[in-house]
Amino acid sequence: GVMGRYYAVNDGEDPAVAEALMEQYLPRFAGDAIPATETGAALALADRLDTLVGIFSIGQQPSGSRDPFALRRASLGILRIIIERDIDIDLKLAITAAAQQLNITEGSDALCMQVLTYALDRFKAWYKDEGIDAEVFASVSALELSNPMDIDARVKAVDQFTSLPEAVALAAANKRVFNILAKQAAETIPTAIDSSLLVDAAEQQLAQNITELRGTIAPLLEQRDYAGVLKNLALLRDPVDKFFDDVMVMVDDQAIRDNRLALLHSLRNLFLNVADISQLVVTK
Predict the structure, then answer these.
(1) Mean pLDDT, residues 248-274 taken together
(2) Which of 27, 80, 171, 242 would give a disulfide with 32, using CB separation of 3.0 to 4.6 Å?
(3) Residues with Cβ < 8 Å from 85, sequence gap 6 or more?
(4) pTM listed for this prediction
(5) What is the arithmetic mean of pLDDT over 204-211?
(6) Is 186 exposed, middle or buried (0-12, 13-18, 19+ CB in 10 A)?
(7) What is the tens place of the pLDDT at every residue in 58-92?
(8) d(Cα 85, Cα 269) in Å, to the nearest integer?
(9) What is the CB-side half-sphere exposure of residue 280 using CA atoms within 13 A?
(10) CB count, 10 Å around CB of 117?
(11) Cβ–Cβ < 8 Å for 5, 26
Protein backbone atom coordinates (compact mmCIF):
# COMPACT_ATOMS: atom_id res chain seq x y z
CA GLY A 1 0.00 0.00 0.00
CA VAL A 2 2.75 2.46 0.87
CA MET A 3 4.73 1.65 -2.26
CA GLY A 4 1.56 1.63 -4.33
CA ARG A 5 0.93 5.19 -3.25
CA TYR A 6 4.45 6.26 -4.25
CA TYR A 7 4.13 4.55 -7.63
CA ALA A 8 0.77 6.23 -8.25
CA VAL A 9 2.13 9.67 -7.35
CA ASN A 10 5.16 9.06 -9.59
CA ASP A 11 2.87 8.04 -12.47
CA GLY A 12 0.82 11.20 -12.14
CA GLU A 13 -2.34 9.55 -10.82
CA ASP A 14 -5.04 11.63 -9.13
CA PRO A 15 -3.97 12.29 -5.49
CA ALA A 16 -7.22 10.68 -4.29
CA VAL A 17 -6.31 7.49 -6.15
CA ALA A 18 -2.79 7.47 -4.74
CA GLU A 19 -4.08 7.96 -1.18
CA ALA A 20 -6.72 5.24 -1.63
CA LEU A 21 -4.07 2.73 -2.72
CA MET A 22 -2.39 3.18 0.64
CA GLU A 23 -5.64 3.27 2.67
CA GLN A 24 -6.88 0.09 1.01
CA TYR A 25 -4.94 -1.90 3.63
CA LEU A 26 -6.28 0.02 6.65
CA PRO A 27 -6.92 -1.01 9.36
CA ARG A 28 -3.98 -3.44 9.38
CA PHE A 29 -4.36 -4.54 13.01
CA ALA A 30 -6.50 -3.91 16.09
CA GLY A 31 -6.46 -0.23 16.99
CA ASP A 32 -4.97 0.82 13.65
CA ALA A 33 -6.35 3.85 11.83
CA ILE A 34 -9.17 3.39 9.33
CA PRO A 35 -9.22 5.03 5.87
CA ALA A 36 -9.59 8.79 6.15
CA THR A 37 -10.95 9.36 2.64
CA GLU A 38 -14.18 8.19 1.00
CA THR A 39 -12.30 6.61 -1.90
CA GLY A 40 -9.94 4.81 0.46
CA ALA A 41 -12.85 3.53 2.56
CA ALA A 42 -14.70 2.29 -0.53
CA LEU A 43 -11.60 0.51 -1.83
CA ALA A 44 -10.81 -1.02 1.57
CA LEU A 45 -14.36 -2.36 1.87
CA ALA A 46 -14.40 -3.69 -1.70
CA ASP A 47 -11.06 -5.44 -1.21
CA ARG A 48 -12.15 -7.17 2.00
CA LEU A 49 -15.56 -8.15 0.65
CA ASP A 50 -13.93 -9.62 -2.46
CA THR A 51 -11.50 -11.60 -0.29
CA LEU A 52 -14.21 -12.91 2.06
CA VAL A 53 -16.57 -14.02 -0.70
CA GLY A 54 -13.76 -15.48 -2.81
CA ILE A 55 -12.23 -17.52 -0.01
CA PHE A 56 -15.60 -18.76 1.24
CA SER A 57 -16.59 -19.74 -2.31
CA ILE A 58 -13.68 -22.20 -2.54
CA GLY A 59 -14.40 -23.69 0.88
CA GLN A 60 -11.41 -22.23 2.68
CA GLN A 61 -13.28 -20.38 5.44
CA PRO A 62 -11.72 -20.33 8.93
CA SER A 63 -12.28 -23.30 11.21
CA GLY A 64 -11.50 -23.23 14.90
CA SER A 65 -8.34 -21.21 15.47
CA ARG A 66 -7.20 -21.71 11.88
CA ASP A 67 -7.50 -18.51 9.83
CA PRO A 68 -4.68 -18.50 7.23
CA PHE A 69 -6.24 -15.74 5.13
CA ALA A 70 -6.92 -13.44 8.11
CA LEU A 71 -10.65 -13.33 7.40
CA ARG A 72 -11.49 -12.45 11.01
CA ARG A 73 -9.31 -9.37 10.72
CA ALA A 74 -10.87 -8.55 7.34
CA SER A 75 -14.38 -8.84 8.81
CA LEU A 76 -13.54 -6.66 11.78
CA GLY A 77 -12.02 -4.15 9.38
CA ILE A 78 -15.27 -4.04 7.42
CA LEU A 79 -17.30 -3.45 10.58
CA ARG A 80 -14.92 -0.79 11.90
CA ILE A 81 -14.91 1.16 8.63
CA ILE A 82 -18.69 1.06 8.37
CA ILE A 83 -19.35 2.02 12.01
CA GLU A 84 -16.59 4.58 12.49
CA ARG A 85 -17.24 6.30 9.17
CA ASP A 86 -21.05 6.17 9.59
CA ILE A 87 -21.60 4.34 6.31
CA ASP A 88 -25.29 3.43 6.07
CA ILE A 89 -24.98 0.25 4.03
CA ASP A 90 -26.76 -3.08 3.86
CA LEU A 91 -23.93 -5.57 4.19
CA LYS A 92 -26.00 -8.34 2.62
CA LEU A 93 -26.39 -6.30 -0.57
CA ALA A 94 -22.67 -5.46 -0.58
CA ILE A 95 -21.73 -9.14 -0.20
CA THR A 96 -24.15 -10.06 -2.99
CA ALA A 97 -22.51 -7.46 -5.23
CA ALA A 98 -19.10 -8.96 -4.46
CA ALA A 99 -20.38 -12.42 -5.41
CA GLN A 100 -21.74 -11.04 -8.69
CA GLN A 101 -18.34 -9.53 -9.50
CA LEU A 102 -16.83 -13.01 -9.08
CA ASN A 103 -19.54 -14.49 -11.33
CA ILE A 104 -20.67 -16.83 -8.56
CA THR A 105 -24.11 -18.15 -9.48
CA GLU A 106 -24.58 -21.67 -8.14
CA GLY A 107 -25.47 -21.54 -4.45
CA SER A 108 -24.74 -17.81 -4.30
CA ASP A 109 -27.61 -17.04 -1.89
CA ALA A 110 -26.42 -19.61 0.64
CA LEU A 111 -22.82 -18.45 0.22
CA CYS A 112 -23.73 -14.81 0.77
CA MET A 113 -25.69 -15.67 3.93
CA GLN A 114 -22.72 -17.69 5.20
CA VAL A 115 -20.37 -14.75 4.64
CA LEU A 116 -22.83 -12.29 6.18
CA THR A 117 -23.27 -14.44 9.28
CA TYR A 118 -19.53 -14.86 9.66
CA ALA A 119 -18.83 -11.14 9.30
CA LEU A 120 -21.56 -10.06 11.73
CA ASP A 121 -20.47 -12.66 14.27
CA ARG A 122 -17.29 -10.59 14.72
CA PHE A 123 -19.51 -8.16 16.61
CA LYS A 124 -19.49 -10.64 19.52
CA ALA A 125 -15.81 -10.01 20.27
CA TRP A 126 -16.25 -6.30 19.50
CA TYR A 127 -18.97 -5.83 22.12
CA LYS A 128 -17.25 -8.09 24.62
CA ASP A 129 -14.26 -5.74 24.47
CA GLU A 130 -16.67 -2.84 25.09
CA GLY A 131 -18.08 -4.57 28.18
CA ILE A 132 -21.49 -5.28 26.63
CA ASP A 133 -23.09 -8.56 27.70
CA ALA A 134 -23.38 -11.29 25.08
CA GLU A 135 -27.16 -11.56 25.45
CA VAL A 136 -27.52 -7.89 24.52
CA PHE A 137 -26.03 -8.61 21.10
CA ALA A 138 -28.04 -11.86 20.92
CA SER A 139 -31.28 -9.91 21.43
CA VAL A 140 -30.49 -7.81 18.35
CA SER A 141 -28.94 -10.65 16.34
CA ALA A 142 -32.23 -12.55 16.72
CA LEU A 143 -33.81 -10.05 14.30
CA GLU A 144 -31.42 -11.17 11.53
CA LEU A 145 -30.54 -7.65 10.40
CA SER A 146 -27.77 -6.85 7.93
CA ASN A 147 -26.99 -3.14 8.35
CA PRO A 148 -24.03 -2.83 10.77
CA MET A 149 -24.82 0.78 11.68
CA ASP A 150 -28.40 -0.15 12.51
CA ILE A 151 -27.28 -3.19 14.50
CA ASP A 152 -24.80 -1.08 16.47
CA ALA A 153 -27.45 1.54 17.28
CA ARG A 154 -29.81 -1.14 18.56
CA VAL A 155 -27.13 -2.88 20.66
CA LYS A 156 -26.15 0.41 22.32
CA ALA A 157 -29.83 1.17 23.03
CA VAL A 158 -30.52 -2.27 24.52
CA ASP A 159 -27.38 -1.98 26.65
CA GLN A 160 -28.72 1.32 28.03
CA PHE A 161 -32.13 -0.27 28.56
CA THR A 162 -30.66 -2.99 30.80
CA SER A 163 -29.68 -0.32 33.33
CA LEU A 164 -33.28 0.92 33.69
CA PRO A 165 -35.19 -0.22 36.80
CA GLU A 166 -38.00 -1.49 34.55
CA ALA A 167 -35.69 -3.76 32.54
CA VAL A 168 -35.81 -6.79 34.85
CA ALA A 169 -39.62 -6.97 34.90
CA LEU A 170 -40.03 -6.27 31.18
CA ALA A 171 -37.40 -8.82 30.13
CA ALA A 172 -39.14 -11.41 32.30
CA ALA A 173 -42.54 -10.43 30.88
CA ASN A 174 -41.24 -10.76 27.34
CA LYS A 175 -39.94 -14.24 28.14
CA ARG A 176 -43.37 -15.14 29.49
CA VAL A 177 -45.10 -13.73 26.40
CA PHE A 178 -42.67 -15.58 24.12
CA ASN A 179 -43.33 -18.88 25.90
CA ILE A 180 -47.10 -18.44 25.78
CA LEU A 181 -47.08 -17.59 22.07
CA ALA A 182 -44.60 -20.39 21.28
CA LYS A 183 -46.99 -22.95 22.74
CA GLN A 184 -49.69 -21.67 20.38
CA ALA A 185 -47.41 -21.64 17.33
CA ALA A 186 -49.50 -24.26 15.55
CA GLU A 187 -52.64 -22.12 15.87
CA THR A 188 -53.53 -19.01 13.92
CA ILE A 189 -53.45 -16.03 16.27
CA PRO A 190 -55.49 -13.01 15.14
CA THR A 191 -53.32 -10.02 14.28
CA ALA A 192 -55.94 -7.43 15.21
CA ILE A 193 -57.23 -6.81 18.72
CA ASP A 194 -61.03 -6.75 19.03
CA SER A 195 -61.79 -4.08 21.64
CA SER A 196 -65.27 -5.51 22.20
CA LEU A 197 -63.67 -8.69 23.57
CA LEU A 198 -61.54 -6.87 26.14
CA VAL A 199 -63.58 -7.62 29.25
CA ASP A 200 -61.04 -7.03 32.02
CA ALA A 201 -59.86 -3.57 33.07
CA ALA A 202 -56.20 -4.64 33.01
CA GLU A 203 -56.36 -5.87 29.41
CA GLN A 204 -58.29 -2.78 28.34
CA GLN A 205 -55.58 -0.59 29.86
CA LEU A 206 -52.76 -2.56 28.26
CA ALA A 207 -54.44 -2.43 24.84
CA GLN A 208 -54.82 1.34 25.18
CA ASN A 209 -51.17 1.72 26.19
CA ILE A 210 -50.02 -0.37 23.20
CA THR A 211 -52.08 1.70 20.77
CA GLU A 212 -50.76 4.96 22.19
CA LEU A 213 -47.15 3.78 22.18
CA ARG A 214 -47.33 2.67 18.55
CA GLY A 215 -47.92 6.30 17.61
CA THR A 216 -45.30 7.60 20.02
CA ILE A 217 -42.45 5.38 18.86
CA ALA A 218 -43.13 5.54 15.10
CA PRO A 219 -41.11 8.76 14.52
CA LEU A 220 -38.37 7.53 16.88
CA LEU A 221 -37.99 4.36 14.82
CA GLU A 222 -37.68 6.46 11.68
CA GLN A 223 -34.80 8.33 13.33
CA ARG A 224 -33.23 5.12 14.68
CA ASP A 225 -33.62 6.54 18.16
CA TYR A 226 -33.86 3.09 19.66
CA ALA A 227 -32.89 4.30 23.13
CA GLY A 228 -35.87 6.66 22.98
CA VAL A 229 -38.13 3.81 21.84
CA LEU A 230 -37.10 1.57 24.74
CA LYS A 231 -37.40 4.41 27.23
CA ASN A 232 -41.01 4.84 26.15
CA LEU A 233 -41.68 1.11 26.17
CA ALA A 234 -40.37 0.97 29.74
CA LEU A 235 -43.63 2.73 30.68
CA LEU A 236 -45.38 -0.59 30.02
CA ARG A 237 -43.96 -2.19 33.13
CA ASP A 238 -46.92 -1.46 35.43
CA PRO A 239 -49.70 -2.25 32.92
CA VAL A 240 -47.94 -5.47 31.87
CA ASP A 241 -47.49 -6.53 35.51
CA LYS A 242 -51.15 -5.70 36.18
CA PHE A 243 -52.23 -7.72 33.15
CA PHE A 244 -50.40 -10.86 34.26
CA ASP A 245 -51.62 -10.42 37.85
CA ASP A 246 -55.29 -9.99 36.93
CA VAL A 247 -55.87 -11.71 33.59
CA MET A 248 -55.92 -15.37 32.69
CA VAL A 249 -54.88 -15.68 29.05
CA MET A 250 -55.76 -19.31 28.32
CA VAL A 251 -59.47 -19.20 29.22
CA ASP A 252 -62.07 -21.62 27.82
CA ASP A 253 -63.79 -19.00 25.69
CA GLN A 254 -61.84 -19.27 22.43
CA ALA A 255 -62.71 -15.79 21.16
CA ILE A 256 -61.51 -14.12 24.38
CA ARG A 257 -58.44 -16.38 24.52
CA ASP A 258 -57.48 -15.59 20.93
CA ASN A 259 -58.00 -11.89 21.55
CA ARG A 260 -55.70 -11.98 24.57
CA LEU A 261 -53.10 -13.84 22.53
CA ALA A 262 -53.42 -11.11 19.88
CA LEU A 263 -52.85 -8.55 22.62
CA LEU A 264 -49.67 -10.33 23.74
CA HIS A 265 -48.55 -10.64 20.12
CA SER A 266 -48.95 -6.87 19.71
CA LEU A 267 -47.01 -6.29 22.92
CA ARG A 268 -44.15 -8.50 21.74
CA ASN A 269 -44.07 -6.81 18.34
CA LEU A 270 -43.64 -3.41 20.00
CA PHE A 271 -40.35 -4.56 21.52
CA LEU A 272 -39.31 -6.42 18.37
CA ASN A 273 -39.14 -3.03 16.68
CA VAL A 274 -35.80 -2.78 18.50
CA ALA A 275 -34.74 -6.21 19.74
CA ASP A 276 -35.93 -9.48 21.21
CA ILE A 277 -35.52 -8.57 24.86
CA SER A 278 -36.80 -11.99 25.92
CA GLN A 279 -33.17 -12.99 25.27
CA LEU A 280 -31.92 -10.74 28.05
CA VAL A 281 -30.81 -11.94 31.46
CA VAL A 282 -31.18 -8.76 33.47
CA THR A 283 -30.22 -8.87 37.15
CA LYS A 284 -29.32 -5.24 37.76
Answers:
(1) 95
(2) 27
(3) 34, 35, 41
(4) 0.93
(5) 97
(6) exposed
(7) 999 998 888 999 999 999 999 999 999 999 999 99
(8) 31
(9) 27
(10) 12
(11) no
